[in-house]
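Narrative of activities, Objective 1.

The group set out to show that a structural description can be obtained from nothing but a protein's sequence at a throughput compatible with the screening campaign. Below is one input-output pair from the validation batch, recorded exactly as produced.
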Amino acid sequence: MGMVTELISECKKYTDNIEFSAEDAVRAESPFLYQAISDAIKAGATRVTVCDSEGTMFPSEFGGFISDIFENVPSAKDVTLGVEVVDSMNMASASAFAAIEAGATQVKVTADNFNFPTVEKIAKIFTLRGDSIKVSSKIRTTEIRRVTGQIKRMLNTSKSENTPFETGVNEDSETLTLDKNDTIATVVKAVKKIGYDLSPEDNANVYEAFKRVAVKKDFVGTKELEAIIASSALQVPSIYSIGSYVINSGNIITATANIKLVKNGTEISGVSVGDGPIDAAFLAIEQIIGHHYELDDFQIKAVTEGREAMGHALVKLRSSTGKLYSGTGISTDIIGASIRAYVSALNKIAYEEG
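Output recorded for this entry:
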């Protein structure tokens, strides 16, 4: 108990707005909890938060728990008594309102669903049923919905464990060596070996492109063959096209991407943060399309030299059916090349899967 008083007294040297938070309060011995709250208020706490850290109380039990605090700690009426409820049983919002009905004046919420009541859900209950328990809120629900929506989109950074931005570019693909004397059967076999399942027409297109490259080189390796596949197989109409993109990155800020794609004449935008500008760009595109495709491989290389060198990017996406699609992009801006490559592969998936 002495530590509670000591710490709050130290806090008072810096601010008058002091909160005492009792973690796992519902499982504490009642006399101990009441004494701790009383001592905290006496020492100068202006806010007291009691927590159901396991989220195992029914709403009626939690409401009774709050009533007991007010009955046994009279000074609790002189401060802001708040609650924090974990949503383990999907009843946190109900428990929070049971606490409000018992006299609590503060509920801790989150913007996204991190196993706690969300601000949107609590605001909705205030709107629908607040009058029935004589409570109200000044929450501007429209603005809250817009802001929390942006926060959710920025926090949604889920991605494949095989993304090159976490594990390095995939080096597990087969190492192949082909030359101008190889037949179409050999080339088709090599194409299948590195993971592509192409139609006879696309196999023929790849072989024709392969022959044009092979006569100019001693051999064609795996990366060259993948670039040939990306540029000559499954050429489809552009369902998505790039409207614009804005990328912010630096050594003292988190990379962000704001991308606009056009689909059927309608502009759709996505905003995301990421581990670097290209990662953020790919995640922003995932937000736009509302789907995550596994990033099987990602390659960047220069195709010309000098300060205005062209960069070539190759993106390999694996669809939900397990089929591999690749796309390429070329630009003096390597981020732009990467975005173009991703959209190129995406268009092939969208065309085949409808």
